[in-house]
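In response to reviewer comment 3 from the previous cycle, which asked for concrete evidence that the modeling workflow produces usable outputs, we include below a single protein chain processed end to end. The sequence was submitted unchanged, and the resulting C-alpha coordinates are shown without manual editing.
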Amino acid sequence: MNDAPGLSAPSSGPGSAVPASPRAHRDDLAADTARELALAEVRWSYDGECPPRPRRLAARRAPGGVAVPIRG
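The workflow returned the following C-alpha coordinates.
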Protein backbone atom coordinates (compact mmCIF):
# COMPACT_ATOMS: atom_id res chain seq x y z
CA MET A 1 0.00 0.00 0.00
CA ASN A 2 1.56 3.31 1.08
CA ASP A 3 5.16 2.97 2.27
CA ALA A 4 5.56 6.64 3.26
CA PRO A 5 6.28 7.06 6.99
CA GLY A 6 3.41 8.43 9.03
CA LEU A 7 0.79 7.84 6.33
CA SER A 8 -0.40 4.37 7.22
CA ALA A 9 -4.12 3.61 7.29
CA PRO A 10 -5.74 3.52 10.74
CA SER A 11 -6.22 0.10 12.21
CA SER A 12 -9.72 -1.19 12.88
CA GLY A 13 -8.68 -4.29 14.79
CA PRO A 14 -9.26 -5.08 18.47
CA GLY A 15 -8.00 -2.41 20.82
CA SER A 16 -8.11 0.38 18.26
CA ALA A 17 -10.26 3.49 18.58
CA VAL A 18 -11.50 3.24 14.97
CA PRO A 19 -14.80 1.32 14.67
CA ALA A 20 -15.10 -1.41 12.04
CA SER A 21 -17.79 0.55 10.19
CA PRO A 22 -19.37 4.01 10.59
CA ARG A 23 -22.61 2.36 11.71
CA ALA A 24 -21.03 -0.10 14.17
CA HIS A 25 -22.63 1.53 17.22
CA ARG A 26 -26.11 2.04 15.75
CA ASP A 27 -27.60 -0.67 18.02
CA ASP A 28 -26.45 1.25 21.10
CA LEU A 29 -28.31 4.44 20.16
CA ALA A 30 -31.70 5.48 21.45
CA ALA A 31 -34.54 5.44 18.92
CA ASP A 32 -34.61 9.25 18.61
CA THR A 33 -30.88 9.44 18.07
CA ALA A 34 -30.98 6.65 15.48
CA ARG A 35 -33.74 8.48 13.61
CA GLU A 36 -31.71 11.72 13.62
CA LEU A 37 -28.67 9.80 12.35
CA ALA A 38 -30.71 8.35 9.48
CA LEU A 39 -32.06 11.79 8.56
CA ALA A 40 -28.56 13.27 8.63
CA GLU A 41 -27.30 10.52 6.32
CA VAL A 42 -30.11 11.31 3.86
CA ARG A 43 -29.36 15.04 3.98
CA TRP A 44 -25.65 14.54 3.41
CA SER A 45 -26.20 12.06 0.56
CA TYR A 46 -28.41 14.50 -1.41
CA ASP A 47 -26.24 16.89 -3.41
CA GLY A 48 -28.99 19.45 -4.13
CA GLU A 49 -28.17 19.71 -7.83
CA CYS A 50 -31.08 17.71 -9.15
CA PRO A 51 -34.46 16.70 -7.75
CA PRO A 52 -34.60 13.36 -5.95
CA ARG A 53 -35.55 10.44 -8.16
CA PRO A 54 -39.23 9.56 -7.97
CA ARG A 55 -39.95 6.25 -6.30
CA ARG A 56 -41.06 3.49 -8.59
CA LEU A 57 -44.38 1.98 -7.72
CA ALA A 58 -44.30 -1.71 -6.97
CA ALA A 59 -46.12 -3.54 -9.74
CA ARG A 60 -46.62 -7.03 -11.01
CA ARG A 61 -47.47 -8.23 -14.48
CA ALA A 62 -50.91 -9.71 -15.01
CA PRO A 63 -51.60 -12.19 -17.80
CA GLY A 64 -51.56 -10.30 -21.08
CA GLY A 65 -48.68 -8.03 -20.00
CA VAL A 66 -50.77 -5.50 -18.07
CA ALA A 67 -48.92 -3.89 -15.14
CA VAL A 68 -50.98 -3.98 -11.95
CA PRO A 69 -49.88 -1.69 -9.08
CA ILE A 70 -49.37 -3.36 -5.73
CA ARG A 71 -50.68 -1.49 -2.73
CA GLY A 72 -48.46 -1.81 0.29
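Helices lie at 31-45. We consider this sufficient to address the reviewer's concern, and the full set will be provided in the supplementary archive.
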